[in-house]
Amino acid sequence: MIKTSVIVPCYNAETYLRECVESILSQTLREIEVIFIDDGSTDCTLDILEEYQKKFDNIKLMRQENQGSGIARNQGIKVAEGEYIAFMDADDFYPAPTTLEKLYTTAVEKGAVICGGSACNYREGAYTFNGLDAGHLFSEDGWIDKRDFPTSGGYWRFIFNSDFLKKRGIFFPDYLRFQDPPFFLETIAQAGRVYCLKEVTYVHRKAHRQAFFTKERAIGYAKGIRDCLMISQREGMSAAYLQVLSLLPGVPSACMYLFAEKCSEMQNIIYQINRVIADNSGIKTDAPQLKEGEELSYYLRDVQEEKKKLLERLKQENKILIYGAGVMGKKANAFFSTNGIAIEAFVVSNVEDNAAWVDGLQVKGIDEYVNERKSCTVIIATYPAQQEEIRKLLWEKGFEKVYPLLPEKYYLFEGKVSY
Question: Quick check: helix, strand or coil at residue 39?
Fold first, then answer.
């Protein structure tokens, strides 16, 4: 009997693929099958997969034209023979050889439809928990009711009962972005509860690639947000609902510009999102709606004016630091470099939790600049939930020239997105 099927969609994944494959094949749970779906790769991904398939009888290899990871995972679900299904991204890996065995034995013992654990980030040689959304770490083992489950993200650290998925017809939507959270929330909604472990069960490789939003990806992202809001509100999943609402400030500029340029599909999706937020029939919040119509047009104009003033101001500064060396920090560095602004270093509170160098810049402790604080300009490039605490920390240390760069502003500063 196959106990667990591990489904891995692969697209141009040659750089980290072997590490991913080896972490799966080295699992102490021997009754597994590994289903690789090559999603139209143009590099050596398929060659690597064929090499492994020749050596291991428990590997299934499927191919499809490039259609996205959601459709690839659905193909895997349909052919999976395992009692449970695990999902792995081709650039990630398991933290220990015992991970799948722990997940499977716990799921069977507890009779859990969904069983999973905590997550860990891996970036440039360092294992960290920085930048993980709430709900990616569990402080104790136990059941969590769907109404209390705190996030829509991180489905890959869980295993899912295969019969449950197939009988309920739960698959990934065919969006090119943000297709995972709707799948995850719908599964939790129908299962009713989740068994969670404090043990780390997945290592997510962080900040090694940049997301580019085409028109189709922007539409998929907006649809995913809409679906998550609708599912969580319908099921009274208040914690997940609030987490999804917290993502709205980071809605990519592509979504806003498509709306402003009268893309009817994007306009309809934004209207639907705002109707869900305004409804509040299941979960009461005072969350603002996404901007529409003339309000959005004026806002986009004002953002470009703000960008112009910020760049002019920074060109007069001699020592510019970016607080935060994660995803947003890297994006901010790329943006400013493109616009002729030299960044001296990334700064963080705890150097030990970060790589020594990121994108050619050294990562230093903020305290190294305390004696130079009057001459430093610090750009806070983190997710919104962390920014107020960081700003307070910087003020307490005497840094006066501080600029919080919200994800929404960063995306919009880039201007019109090509699509």
Answer: strand
Query: Could you give the count of Cα atoms lying within 13 Å of 353 in the half-sphere of its Cβ?
Result: 15
Indicate if the pLDDT at residue 208 is higher than 80: no
Number of H helices, E strands in the chain: 14, 15
Query: Which amino acid, residue 399?
Result: F
Q: Answer whether residue 419 shows pLDDT above 50.
A: no
Classify strands 114-123 and 193-205 as parallel, antiparallel or unpaired. Answer: parallel
Helices marked H in 142-262 = 162-168, 180-191, 215-234, 238-245, 253-260
Assess whether pLDDT exceeds 60 at residue 258. yes
Local confidence band at 131 (pLDDT 50, 70, 90 cut-offs) = low
Closest CA to 172 of 164, 159, 184, 161: 184
pTM confidence score: 0.81
Q: What is the DSSP letter of 261?
A: T
Residue 46: pLDDT over 80: yes
Torsions phi, psi for 290 (to 5 deg): -70, 145
Kindly report each contact of residues 324-327 with a partner whose C-beta sits within 8 Å and lies 24 or more positions away, as own/partner.
Answer: 324/348, 324/380, 324/381, 324/382, 324/386, 324/390, 325/354, 325/355, 325/358, 325/363, 326/123, 326/130, 326/131, 326/206, 326/207, 326/382, 327/131, 327/206, 327/207
Q: Which of 144, 140, 148, 237 is nearest to 193 (CA)?
A: 144
Contact 165, 85 (CB under 8 A): yes
Q: According to the model, what pLDDT value does residue 254 have?
A: 79
Higher pLDDT, 194 or 252: 194
Which pair of structure tokens corresponds to residue 246? 């917290």
Q: What does the pLDDT average to over 196-200?
A: 97
Rounded to whole angstroms, the Cα distance separating 79 from 101 reads 22
Task: Compute the half-sphere exposure of residue 29: CA atoms within 13 Å on the CB side of its CA.
Answer: 27
Indicate if the pLDDT at residue 173 is higher than 70. Answer: yes
Question: Phi and psi dihedrals of 114, rounded to 5?
Answer: -130, 130
126 beta partners: 123
Cβ partners under 8 Å of residue 363, min gap 6: 325, 345, 346, 347, 348, 351, 354, 355, 356, 357
Contact 121, 128 (CB under 8 A): yes
What are the residue ranges of helices labelled H in 127-200? 162-168, 180-191
Residue type, 213: F
